[in-house]
Structure formats: C-alpha cells, structure tokens
Amino acid sequence: MLETVWVFENRRSGEERSGTLSASWEVEYDPMSDDYTPDEMPASELLQQWVAKVQPRYNNGLVPITWYVRGDEIGIFEFMPAQFRHIPELDIDFLTYFTLPENSETGESLKWLSLPVVDKLWNAKQAHKGGFIQEATGWKPGILQPFVYLPTLWGTSNS
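RE: above sequence
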C-alpha cells in the first residue's frame, strides 16, 4: 500500500512542507522505558513496573493516552488536533503551527482518523519509548482513543 504524501504550510513563515504523517501515542508514564534497553529490561518486567506506578494514580483504571502527529522525514512531532484534552489549558496542537494537510495527489483535506497509528515495539530490533506495552500485551490504541482501561490491559498481559 502506498503511503499518502500530505502538503501543508507553516502558519508563521508560509513555508510549504510535504511528507507522510502518522499518529503516535503515549500512555501516561510509558516514557519510563527511556532509562532502559530491551537487553536490560524485558517488556514484561517493564510492564509490571509501569502497572505498579500507574495503578495507585488512576484508581478508576483509566490511564490517559496523549496523541501526536508525526512526520519523521520532515521533522514533525506535534500534539494531534481533535483529541481529548487531559490538560484543558494545553490548547496548542499541529494546527496551531501548520495549515490543515491536503493530499498531494487529490487535494483532499486530511481526516485525522485516517492517519495510520504507529506500532511501538520493544525488542532486539526496535526500542520505542513506551513500546514495552504493545510488545508485552499485543495491544495498541485505536486512533484518538483517550484512555486505556488498566484492568483490561493488565489482564491481557497476565493470561
């Protein structure tokens, strides 16, 4: 499948940018993996440490997910528009800095729910920030999903 190339402008400079875009996700406290490599800490052990950290903080079981628009080859990593705002005062996102992307071939405007969600892995080949969750459980969120329900996720990893 061919990846869509999106075209948009920097709102300040008017500079045109183009490239592929994806949706990247971060579950609260998953950057704790930054202190390790997969050789030092297997995904299942990191998941246990993560659960121990988030369980007392989110006693209702709903752990926040934050979303980003990512364009690796063009240096884009901004908050995704149209996501649930866990911090209402944080009202900046991709559209603060850039115009709405358009398909380079058709001119059609981007629908945020159509972006591919990145896989975050934690193994000998790739060590993504927070990748231990997907690696240990097989789970990744649906695009713009605002929370993961911890008992469901933790139950998945213990089966």
